[in-house]
C-alpha cells in the first residue's frame, strides 16, 4: 500500500480525484438531466446516451487510475491489462484478447499499464480496427491490431511521445511496425 500522503503517487491521485474525476462526474450529471428531459426527441436521446456511456467509461478509468496510484494492486498483470482494455473498449465493437502471464516488478508495473492503455486508446481512435491482441511474454509485450495502420512512429504523435518517455523512465524500448494491414508494437523491458 502506498500510504505516504506526501508521495508523488498520492499527490497525483489527489489531483485526479479533486480535479478531473469531479469535473467528469459533474458533466455526467448534466447529461443525465438532458437525457431525462421529456422534450428531447428519441434520436438525440440515443446520441446523448452514447455520450453518457462513453463518459461513464472515462470516469471508471480515472477511478481505476486513482486506485492504482494509491495501492499496490494484488491483481495479476494480465488481469489488470484485461480490465483496462475492457474499460477502454466499453461500448465499442472492438474485440480484444490478452494472452500469457508475466510477473512484473512493482517499480515498472504502473508505467507499463499506462503505456498499454495509451496504445489501446490509440488503436481505438485511429486504427479503425476490429481486434486488438496483447501478448505478454517474459521480457516483451506485443500489442497488435488489425486496423489500417492508424498508429505510426511519427515523432509528432503526442501519444507515442508520452509512451516513449514512460518507457525511457523504466529502461524499456518500443518497436513500431505499421502498415495498411495493422500495427504491431513491441515493448522490450527487464521484468
Task: Describe this entry's structure for a reader.
The protein is of the alpha+beta class and 191 residues long. It has 2 domains: 1-72; 75-191, 2-Layer Sandwich (Heat Shock Protein 90), CATH 3.30.565. The chain has 5 helices and 5 strands. Strands 1-2-3-5-4 form a 5-stranded mixed beta sheet, covered by helices on one side. A hairpin with a 2-residue loop joins strand 4 and strand 5 (182-188). The longest helix is centred in the first third of the chain and has 29 residues, at 42-70. It is globular, with a radius of gyration of 18 Å. The two termini are 21 Å apart. The model has no long low-confidence stretch (mean pLDDT 87).
Helix/strand layout:
Elements: H1 8-35, H2 42-70, H3 77-88, E1 95-99, H4 106-127, E2 131-137, E3 140-145, H5 158-169, E4 173-179, E5 182-188
Parallel strand pairs: 1-2
Antiparallel strand pairs: 2-3, 3-5, 4-5
Helix pairs in contact: 1-2, 3-4, 4-5
Q: What does the oligomeric state look like here?
A: single chain
Low-confidence stretches: none
Helical residue percent band: 40-55%
Count of individual domains: 2
- Provide the spatial order of strands within the biggest beta sheet: 1-2-3-5-4
CATH class of the largest domain: Alpha Beta
The main sheet comes to: 5 strands, mixed
Query: What letter string, H or E per element, gives the SSE order?
Result: HHHEHEEHEE
Amino acid at each position: 500500500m502506498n500510504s505516504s500522503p506526501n508521495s508523488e503517487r498520492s499527490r497525483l491521485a489527489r489531483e485526479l480525484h479533486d480535479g478531473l474525476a469531479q469535473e467528469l462526474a459533474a458533466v455526467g450529471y448534466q447529461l443525465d438531466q438532458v437525457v431525462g428531459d421529456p422534450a428531447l426527441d428519441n434520436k438525440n436521446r440515443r446520441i446523448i446516451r452514447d455520450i453518457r456511456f462513453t463518459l461513464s467509461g472515462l470516469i471508471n478509468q480515472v477511478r481505476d487510475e486513482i486506485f492504482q496510484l494509491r495501492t499496490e494492486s494484488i491483481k495479476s498483470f494480465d488481469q489488470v491489462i484485461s480490465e483496462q482494455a475492457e474499460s477502454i473498449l466499453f461500448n465499442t465493437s472492438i474485440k480484444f484478447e490478452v494472452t500469457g502471464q508475466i510477473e512484473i516488478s512493482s517499480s515498472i508495473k504502473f508505467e507499463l499499464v499506462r503505456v498499454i492503455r495509451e496504445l489501446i486508446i490509440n488503436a481505438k481512435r485511429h486504427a479503425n480496427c476490429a481486434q486488438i491482441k496483447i501478448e505478454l511474454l517474459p521480457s516483451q509485450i506485443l500489442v497488435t491490431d488489425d486496423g489500417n495502420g492508424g498508429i505510426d512512429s511519427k515523432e509528432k504523435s503526442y501519444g507515442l511521445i508520452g509512451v516513449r518517455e514512460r518507457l525511457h523512465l523504466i529502461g524499456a524500448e518500443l518497436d513500431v511496425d505499421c502498415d495498411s494491414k495493422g500495427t504491431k508494437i513491441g515493448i522490450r523491458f527487464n521484468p
